Amino acid sequence: MNRLYRLAILFIFSICLGFAFNMFLLPHEVLSGGITGLAMIFGLLSPINSGIWLVILNIPVFIIGWMKLGKEFIANSVFSVIITSVSMQYIPVMKITDDALLSAVFGGVITGIAIGFIVRVYGSTGGFDIIGLVLTQKRDIPLGGLIFSLNSIVVFISGFLFSWDLALYTMASIYITGIVIDRIHTRHIKLSLMVVTNRGDELKNELIGNLIRGITVINGYGAYSNKESKVLYTVITRYELAIVKSLIKSVDPNAFVSITETVEVMGNFRRT
Q1: How far is CA 106 from CA 24, 84, 183, 221, in A?
Q2: 190-262 placed in CATH 3.30.70.120
Q3: Higher per-residue pLDDT: 83 or 57
Q4: pTM for the predicted model, two decimal places
């Protein structure tokens, strides 16, 4: 069921990407970023559809992702790119509005939402998304901001090939896309978790069995209850919060839980 859910999310939002490209961005020659943007440029300059270029240009990037991010991730990414490519063959390239700025804004929002959800279910739209995810494994950098930096090269290419007005619209669209991605993709946000529980050993084993995180266990004593307890402390990502809360409730519904956002983590913290 979890696998079907992921494939459904990938399928739906990959079609949303094709819709954003063909209905908002391409009609005004406003581009997306990175390899997708390059595919759009080649599609505008040649008789070959941008969706076909999207597959061709992503092949070397998928090879990098296969080595660094794993087979499941690349399989999901290939599926997403193929669905986006096919949808771009059937969704007509037409203007929803004649205002290029409105198209850049709404196209950027829809693209950001689609990419954000695709990344959340362990996939990508190929291109600089994969390169960005490889880099964020080493540093706690917001993915949207990193993709925006990598994609800026497309702005300059579109400026020289088309017009600088359209290049600025492209920059605005890419920037909005990056902001929206960071609102949805929150893996770079770290949370400090402190749990006070009377079932310390059981909860510790359950958390270790379901998370790749170290846990510090401290002996506690309730000032009001005059009872001994265990204090479990760890740092998790925002992605892991939902499963952690579920585990805690299943083991000890009466546990006291404190969750705070962490500014920075140093030391042996696995960035997955």
Answers
A1: 7, 18, 16, 55
A2: yes
A3: 83
A4: 0.63
